[in-house]
Amino acid sequence: MASAPPKESVQCFGRKKNAVTHYKRGRDLIKVNGSPIELVKPEILCYKAFEPVLLLGRHRFAGVDMRIRVSGGGHTSQIYAIRQSIAKALVAFYQKYVDEQSKQEIKDILLRYD
Question: Which GO terms describe its molecular function (predicted)?
Fold first, then answer.
C-alpha cells in the first residue's frame, strides 16, 4: 500500500509573545486559536493582524490554510506576534514550494511597508 505524499507545509514563529503558525495547502482558512481571524478581539487591532493579507492581496493566500496559536502577553503583543508569524510563514512557504523570485517580491513588499 502506497502512502499519500506529505502535504506541503511550513511552521513559523512570531516573537512578541508566543505565536506559532502552521501554514499548509488547504481551503483558504486563516484561524487564530481555532476562530476565524476576522473574530480576533479587540476589533481595532484585528486590522493590524490582517496587515500581511491586506498588503499582499488575498490571492497570495489562495489555496492554503493557516492555523495560528498564540499565548502569553496582552492583546497588543499577541496581535503583533500573529502579524509577524503570518508574514514569516508566507515567505517561508514561497521559498520552499514556489520560487525564489516570488519570495523576494513578497519580502520586499513587506519590508517596504515597515
Answer: RNA binding; structural constituent of ribosome
The reported pLDDT for the residue numbered 75 is: 85
Question: Per-10-residue mean pLDDT for the chain, 114 residues long?
Answer: 71 77 85 88 86 91 88 86 90 91 94 87
Class of the CATH domain delimited by 9-113: alpha beta
